[in-house]
Design goal:
By secondary structure, the protein is an alpha/beta fold. It has twelve helices and eight strands. The chain has one domain: TIM Barrel. The structure holds phosphoenolpyruvate.
Length: about 250
């Protein structure tokens, strides 16, 4: 079964509502004929605006995190119900910046993921090794642990609903991209781990993105790899023309 590629922007902590509006208005006509699925994951305060502007278009809107709890005394967190009410369809979970600066662990990723799935949000779960881990030949063991612990207790049906973003930490926001061979090798490895977590049929359904300085210049080669099913795009998603060129990589 063919997997429909998904190119998703990760705006991180960028774009006020005014800036978001201008970017989306510029982006809409540029991606109108896209053959892949298109999403933008935006700051919480932009979700409602983005959802209203993207209504009736082929651009889906997502958030950048979600609380594991349903509601209550969790200062600074945001619930799945709040995100859904604001118009989010996707949610990024376990981005390396959350792991690095905000103490996100495989266990907290797993809790957030279970809540997202239970509430009907579509999760994009990030995994990836640091430069130190790659140099010490630990890439596979790190990623296996992130996937096994992050996706613990999920049914095969739920595993199939998850989008995985393989993002080598050393390639995020650095301008350094993994070579297409490195990305394919690790993404293929992720798929093999998913086959062990669930089963081969399920693993073949899961879309696995590459993320890390993906841009209009390198997208074609990366997307030509057999197991790469899309991209999670940081820097290049903040400019409508650049993001649209990534989205329209098949043209
Ligand atoms: C990201 O933040 O997920 C990312 C891949 O960023 P960049 O494209 O800027 O490397």
């Amino acid at each position: 079964m063919a997997r429909k590629p998904i190119i998703a922007g990760n705006w991180k902590m960028n774009m006020t509502k005014v800036e978001a509006t201008a970017l989306i208005e510029e982006l809409k006509p540029l991606v109108v004929g896209a053959k892949c699925e298109v999403a933008i994951c935006v700051p919480y305060t932009d979700i409602e605006t983005a959802a209203a502007l993207c209504k009736g278009t082929n651009i889906k809107v997502g958030a950048e995190n979600v609380a594991w709890a349903e509601k209550g005394a969790f200062t600074g967190e945001i619930s799945a119900d709040m995100l859904l009410e604001a118009g989010a369809e996707y949610v990024i979970i376990g981005h390396s910046e959350r792991r690095q600066y905000f103490g996100e662990t495989n266990e907290s990723v797993n809790k957030r993921l279970k809540t997202a799935l239970a509430k009907g949000l579509k999760p994009i779960v990030c995994v990836g090794e640091t430069l130190d881990q790659r140099e010490k030949n630990r890439t596979k063991s790190v990623i296996r642990k992130q996937l096994v612990e992050g996706l613990a207790d999920l049914t095969a049906e739920d595993v199939a609903k998850v989008v995985i973003a393989y993002e080598p930490v050393w390639a995020i926001g650095t301008g350094k991209t993994a070579t297409s061979e490195q990305a394919e090798e690790t993404i293929k490895f992720c798929r093999n781990v998913l086959a062990k977590i669930a089963d081969r049929k399920t693993a073949n359904k899961v879309r696995i993105q590459y993320g890390g300085s993906m841009n209009p210049k390198n997208v074609k080669e990366l997307m030509a790899q057999k197991d790469i099913d899309g991209g999670l795009i940081g820097g290049a998603s903040l400019k409508a023309v650049d993001f649209s060129q990534v989205v329209n990589y098949q043209d």
